[in-house]
């Protein structure tokens, strides 16, 4: 049991749980990690009032609150539900939420998270989609290095965007399936593929969980890449699950994304999450049925020249279990966005020198 719950006297626990709005708040926080603003919408309360109710629940060890920039995210403290009083409160709160419909409206909250990203990436880019820098010798170096890979028949580029990663994947793999759900983004990738002459790349407009994509992947990819996609996902762990289902047994899942940061301006780029702790990435991998993998922190010099170049980048490398079909299972409807026990994860510094500081640069355009 959580130490704070254990140290709370019984009459104090009853007092904290005496208000129906706190019962409802506790039940919603048990279902999904939610921002104060999202809880306010679900409970038809003001944000200050929600914060006022969260405070005693947090003090009693019933909920945990973490900061993401200026947002506070609230979730239940998993061990708290072992207390019989809390378990009874959760049951009562869930009944109240089912009665007022707030429990079922959590899906609307997640849909709203997704809507922001969909609308942002559906916009046509301001610059000419066909304007690419001249290709240098990097592709030749990648093609030579790729011969050292044991299996390179198929790679999947999930959320390909303008196709920047294809400049690495196309020379390295025999076949690449690049998928995005935005036609505007695929137009940019299509222009890149045409300009570079990548005959081995298949561009596909699809959701990651669509049957059409699974058909193109067949028995699974040798590597599944997701570059700077996770921070746009309404439920990051669900996206990692989708990536895992595209991989063959024993294949690698490679996720490039930001470390935790506090640059609220990135929300203008439809960023739902201001990066992730390395342990969070490891936990997502474990909950998706992968090994915990390793997380490598990337040097600032490797982070391109886009709007996000000033942010700290990291890469998760995890593997699907060999000879197992566990990754093919669909997640349950109540799967949480990253809750559960902390997964062991190896963290490496890449080639960054000790004590190196990442420069804060003026953002010029997201991507490389």
Features of this protein?
368 residues, alpha/beta, Arc Repressor Mutant, subunit A, Rossmann fold, eight-stranded mixed β-sheet, three-stranded antiparallel β-sheet, disordered C terminus
What does this structure look like?
- This protein folds into two domains: 3-104, Orthogonal Bundle (Arc Repressor Mutant, subunit A), CATH 1.10.10.10; 130-348, Vaccinia Virus protein VP39 (Rossmann fold).
- The chain is 37% helix and 17% strand.
- The chain has 13 helices and eleven strands.
- It has helices spanning 3-7, 10-16, 20-31, 36-43, 47-59, 84-100, 106-122, 138-146, 166-172, 183-196, 211-217, 236-244, 278-287; strands spanning 34-35, 63-68, 71-76, 154-158, 175-180, 201-205, 221-227, 247-258, 294-297, 313-319, 346-348.
- α3 (20-31) crosses α6 (84-100) and α8 packs across α9 (166-172).
- The protein is elongated and about 70 Å long.
